[in-house]
Amino acid sequence: MPTLIRWVDGRAALAEDAFTAVADETGIPRGDVIVSLARFQQEGERLLGEGRSVGVRIEANEAVEDLAYDLPRIAVVALVFPKYRQGQAYSSAALLRERYGYRGELRAVGEVLREQARFMVRCGFDAFEPADGSTPEQCHAHPLEIIRAAVETYGDELALVSSFGAESAVLLHLASRVKPDIPVLFLDTGMLFGQTLDYRQQLAAKLGLTDVRDLRPRFEDLAVGDPNADLWKTDTDACCHIRKVIPLDAALGGFAGWLTGRKRFHGGDRMRLPVVEEAGGKLKFNPLANWSKTDLDAYAAEHDLPDHPLVAFGYPSIGCWPCTSPVEEGGDVRSGRWAGSQKTECGIHTARAPGAAPNVGGDI
Ligand code: SF4
Predict the structure, then answer these.
(1) CA 323 to ligand 1 center in whole angstroms
(2) For the chain, what are the domain ranges?
(3) Beta bridge partners of residue 128, listed in sequence order
(4) Which residues touch 138 (CB under 8 Å, ≥6 apart)?
(5) Helix (H, G, I), strand (E, B) or coil at 262
(6) pLDDT confidence bin for 325, thresholds 50/70/90
(7) How big is the CA angle at 17 (ends 11 and 21), to the nearest 5 degrees?
């Protein structure tokens, strides 16, 4: 019997699976069963008429709409993940919950890894069968495990995006322990503090990171959109678009997934940050999502990681110099970013495709 993990009160727990998954070519056993959509369409009435609970397995190339009429009678919908990075099952889950109001069990099966668990819950799943035999404990994985799993899955198609800011050293150190040659994408906007540029050099050397890539805005975009380097005074969204969004999108084109350093304790939208999220056909891993400031400080102390020089001057979050201010002791970590304006996001996590949902949190 495969491992089945259910989420109960926000925690993963091993569960007994009362259902037998039945292949199309085998006979129907006694008890509760999960069958393919095609088989349900042929034999569903008979199976339900026998008084048993029936579940239906939906492959990635099948439409949940074909099941809409029968949903109130179906106990389990098992959505198949054919590949780790395939996002169709997430969309199907959201459709079943939100459009069709499905209240039965939604189960993820196939190539499902534990790192997807939190994102699955957000999409409406109740349970999953992990392909790697994960235990419930592993669903609350240490950041190092999350990074290892991402590296094992994506290999050279995985990047890490870092601002080399106030809290960047922890994620960079964790990643260096797993893959020192991981491509690290650093947005050198042309507006960074000199201390950040120095820190980027020193930290990369100390951690042995061998592939830090400096992403700079395109000359033609600056010439047209910000010839005097003062766009930040009048239109911060446009400035961030030229100096951050365009260069990052171009660099990420060659990757299938990326690591970010965002955390829930930063508050705001980030309080609902999942460990894994999907955006624009790529998976984004947030290995530090669950860590508190205390966790970060303890890790940095244990590994003797140097602070960004501006931390000592009251900067808990550090971006471009025109848009970053120090914060009073005890103040919100990110309140010094675009202080005095409504802006909280630089735009790199904002959906590019019309109608697509943005990911939470606005900066790296
Ligand atoms: S943070 Fe400020 S200076 Fe940096 S790209 Fe955005 S608007 Fe421009």
Answers:
(1) 6
(2) 5-140, 143-323
(3) 5, 108
(4) 114, 145
(5) coil
(6) confident
(7) 130
Q: Which CATH superfamily does the domain covering 5-140 fall into? A: Aldolase class I (3.20.20.70)
CATH number of 143-323: 3.40.50.620
Report the pocket of ligand 1 as residue ranges, CB < 6 Å: 189, 191, 232, 236, 239-240, 243-244, 319-320, 322-323, 346
Tens-place pLDDT, residues 77-134: 999 987 655 567 877 888 898 888 899 999 988 877 666 676 677 778 888 887 655 5
Q: Ligand 1 center to residue 291 CA distance, Å? A: 27
B/e letters for 62-95, b = 16+ CB within 10 Å, e = fewer, are bebeebeeebeebbbbbbbbeebbbbbbbebbeb
192-232 pLDDT per residue, tens: 999 999 999 999 999 999 999 999 999 999 999 999 999 99
Spatial neighbors of 331 by CB under 8 A, at least 6 apart, are 316
What is d(CA 320, CA 233) in angstroms, rounded to the nearest whole number? 13
- Alpha-carbon gap, residue 44 to 238, rounded angstroms: 55
C-alpha span between 275 and 286 (Å, rounded): 5
> How high does pLDDT run on average in the chain?
85
Q: What is the pLDDT of residues 225-275, one digit of tens each?
A: 999 999 999 999 999 999 999 999 999 998 989 999 988 777 666 666 667
Minimal CA–CA distance to 363: which of 261, 215, 253? 261
Please tell me the distance from the alpha carbon of residue 55 to that of residue 65, in angstroms, as a whole number. Answer: 15
Determine the length of the chain.
Answer: 364
Residues with catalytic roles:
346
What's the pLDDT score for residue 161?
Answer: 96
Beta-bridge partners for 76: 55, 105
Q: Which atom of ligand 1 is nearest to the CA of 320?
A: 4
Instruction: Please state, in angstroms and rounded to a whole number, the distance separating the CA atoms of residues 262 and 253.
Output: 21
